[in-house]
Each structure stands twice: as structure tokens, then as C-alpha cells.
Amino acid sequence: MDAFRFSISWARLIPSGKVKDGVNKEGVKFYNALIDELIANKDFRDFSRVCFEEFGDKVKMWTTINEPYVITVAGYDTGNKAVGRCSKWVNSQCQAGDSGSEPYIASHHLLLAHAAAVHEFRKCNKTSKDGQIGIVLSPLWFEPYDSTSLEDKEAVKRAVAIELDWNKLLKSSDFIGFHRKKCYIAHLPHVDPARPRFKTDQQLEWRVTNHSNHKMGPEEERRILYSVPEGLRKVLNYIKDKYNNPTVYIKENGINDYDDGTKSKDEILSDIFRIKYHEDHLQQLHKAIIEDGCDVRGYYVWSLLDNFEWEHGYSTRFGLYYVDYDNNLKRYPKDSVNWFKQFLSRIVVKSD
After folding, report:
1. Which residues participate in catalysis according to the annotation?
2. Which residue spans within 44-121 are E strands per DSSP?
């Protein structure tokens, strides 16, 4: 393993959320111990400053906000993730919200928070001289529902623009971090103007099959994620061509196993689909770097360990290591661990 990415909990470091109420020294101690072990082996702005001052001499790469798109769209448009706000007609489980306005308000303030954190990072004299800071995005890639349809091709352009055409945001980062998980088919939708929402403002419909009913790629059991490795190469080339080939780190990429309690541990440890998923994506990454010249510096697997996954809880397992939640969190390596050990020993992955 060349790198390990982890989050710093705001609540653990500053329990009340306000620096004026005090910094939790035990929280600082915890993260210092964690970082040491790894080495051996406005409110948001203030929170960022405390992180930089306490850990900046050790940590060389910082990201401010993880997946702002998911926070705003899934939290304020569809309402299926925290904070669970949306228009009632979008999701009946939402108790309050406005899918037509709140995603934009949340996005605006997330970007302001990112900018404020970057400003504090630049000012802090305790950060490493070669330290870098960025934000982690989660861009989707789209293909036209009908490759002969001009309307569907235009829908793809709008979709990608919404995902990646944010000039001011990119200029506030030393690198671009992004998560690679999904591709969709874009189709011109029929929109009800009386029911505005963020997703329909894009004037496109997200689908997983094209007009010939062909799926984007192999799917995992719950049909939430699909393996479309070519999309990774296309996203990287889009960023390279539009933004003069900036430095990129793929901060997350992975596929899940569904654990509904009926599978044995051995069944889950045999994660052939995950191995194939990463092998295919790494081959496309190799092409993007070697053949296309994309400046990609890192690839982080999501995730090292099984963990609590948003609204899916513990039923969705992304880890290279199986975590036994009923037996003191004991860890067991899945077959993908051995595959990655071989890969990281610099055995060449063939490029077709």
C-alpha cells in the first residue's frame, strides 16, 4: 500500500462545532496517534485551520469536502441520503425540503466552505512546504441513449457540463480528486414544469440501458453500480482536454458485495467480480496515462475494510477485507487482497 486516505471528524475535534467552545484535546491526541501509526506503518474554516495547525506538519495532501455533488443531490433533491430533505412529491419519506432550490443553496455554501478552507491552508505556516489541497468530486460519465439522436447527444453534453464544467472551483485546488463509480445513459426527458428539481433542470433522463435495451456493463447484485471501465478513461481525457491536463488523483474506486445475511463468509471472500472490476479499470487507467498522457498520480481503492455505507448500512460491503460485525470486528482478507498484493509488487497489467 502506497497511500491511505481517512477522514477527520469535525465532531470529534470540535464537539460543539464552534472553536470558541474549545477544541477536544483527546480528539487531537487520537488523530496524532493515528497519523503517527500510519507513518510508522467561518465554522468550517476554523475547523480546517485547527486541522492544519495540529496535523499540517505531517500530512502532505488534504481534501476539504468529499463528494459535494452527492451531499447536495442525494441529500437535498432525492432525499435518499443524509440530510434527507426533498420535495414531498420526489420522495414521500422526506419531511421537508425543496428539490428545486435547496440543492443549489447547499452547493453554493459547500463551495464557499471549500474556498475558505483553502484560504486557511495557504495562510497556515505549520503545513508541510510541499503540502497540497483539493476537493474530491464524484463525476459521472454519460453516453447517449440513442447514438444517432442529436437530442441525446446534446443531453450528454449538458450532463457532463453539470458534472465537470466548474472553472472557479477547479482553480481553488492544487489537484483534482474524484471518485469513479458510475456511468449513465442520457436521454432527453419529458419534464413537468410545475415540478422543478435539480435533476430535471439538467434536461436529461438518467438510464442504465440504451435504446436497444443493452446495459452499460456488468452489474453487481443490487444493480446499483455497473462496471464501465471505458468511462474512466473518457472522464480523464475530458478533464485533460478542458483544463490543460491538471494533476488528478482517483480518490475512490470500487464495487460492492451485497450481504443480506444469507451468504457464508467464504462466499463473500471469493470476490471474483471485484478483482475483474479493478483489473479492467486499472487497464483503462494505464491507457489514459501512457497512451493519452493524462496526469494521474494516484488510485485509491474503496475500500480497505467493509464499513457503514450511507443508507445501505452494513449490508453493502466494498472492502478488500471482510469485517465480521458479530465477532469483535475481526478482519479476513478477500481474494482481491492477494490480487492487489501481486499488482502492487509491480507485476505488469496487460493493456490490450
Report:
1. 67, 252
2. 61-66
